[in-house]
Inverse folding.
């Protein structure tokens, strides 16, 4: 598992809206990302140990697109 805490740009203020929107965007495109944390601003990634490099790259492409579109 890997987790990433999302905060508002230029601050240390939690950004639960961004986390929720990224998770929703990813889910609509077949990538499951969980939100968690006290403020709901953490994204958890839990790829299987047997995931192929190609499939992992596809998931990263979806997440990259999510962050580029949502801001």
């Amino acid at each position: 598992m890997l987790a990433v805490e999302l905060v508002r740009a230029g601050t240390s203020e939690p950004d639960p809206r961004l986390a929720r929107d990224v998770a929703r965007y990813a889910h609509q495109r077949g990538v499951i990302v969980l939100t968690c944390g006290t403020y709901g601003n953490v994204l958890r990634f839990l790829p299987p140990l047997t995931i192929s490099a190609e499939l992992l790259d596809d998931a990263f492409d979806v997440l990259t697109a999510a962050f580029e579109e949502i801001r």
Summary: Helices lie at 16-28, 53-70.
